[in-house]
Amino acid sequence: MNFQQLRSVRETARCGFKLTEVAVALHTSQPGVSRQVRELEDELGVVLFERAGKRLVGLTTAGRALMPIIERLLLNAESLKRAGQELQHQDSGRLSIAATHSQARYALPHVVKDFREHYPKVTLHLHQGSPKQVAEMLISGEADIGVATEALASHEQLVTLPCYRWSHSIVVPPGHPLLFLGRAVTLQDLASWPIITYELGYTGRSHIDDGFIRAGLSPNVVLTAMDADVIKTYVELEMGVGIVASIAVDDERDTHLRSIDAGHLFQVNVTRLGVLRNMWLPGFAYGFIESFAPTLTRDVVLQAIEAH
User: Fold this and answer.
1) Beta-strand pair 55-59/49-52
2) 143 and 174 share a domain?
3) Maximal CA-CA distance, the chain
4) Which of these three, 81, 114, 133, is where a domain ends?
5) Gap between the Cα atoms of 244 and 36, Å rounded
6) What does the pLDDT look like over 195-232, one tens digit per residue?
7) What's the rounded Cα separation, in Å, for the pair 137 and 98?
8) Which residues pair with 195 in a beta bridge?
9) Are residues 144 and 285 both part of a single domain?
């Protein structure tokens, strides 16, 4: 058994069983991939992939059972390699961050700038995706650190830690009637207008829906997006009332909009930071984490990982 065999099996599953794509990803030939897969199957004494003629079409029951072990072996090998590299060059390397658009656009810029000033020899890779994609990037080893509000805590493979709490804001064009109620905006007020907000699974959308459900209201959501800037653009066109993360509102920048605090209407949200359980992290990764959330010192993070 060798790591090339394990990589061939993992990439075959990742590439949808298309051996041509696997060969490109591993910089080898298609027959070479087929041989590696067969050799591992022979050594393990089980068939990992279902076949239709010469084509691989899916994982067998044994394949599904063994794939997490193969993933773990490869991740541990990568951790060992990176640990050795850090011992040689403790202030250099690469760090991969996966985050939702809201976090990447509004919460991370100053953290990234500060990190680059402290670790100029570290190459930083920033990936954006949905909360589900952020979790998947962590689990696959594509990302070292993930930042999102939703979804991370639901994956048992991850260790997640709370970073900060935030609420939503309502955004409307200047002169909108909601600005002149003379009292706090209610959910009933909001429900009487077309609403533009986040897609399901993004940036606290579940808390927005829960707030209306508890009030027995069915809001008229006319447009959804994963990006607060997109939401604000359509609010400027007077297509509806926007509900966005408060961190995405800047009165100095958003001069064509007005904001109303909605913290009393919807449950407070918690942005979480996630890492893969048992994944080795280089020392500078803890520097990034603490810069993002000062309460998450190296000792705190390590204790959380060991507790799991």
Assistant:
1) antiparallel
2) no
3) 76
4) 81
5) 50
6) 999 999 888 999 999 999 999 999 999 999 988 999 99
7) 7
8) 221, 241
9) yes
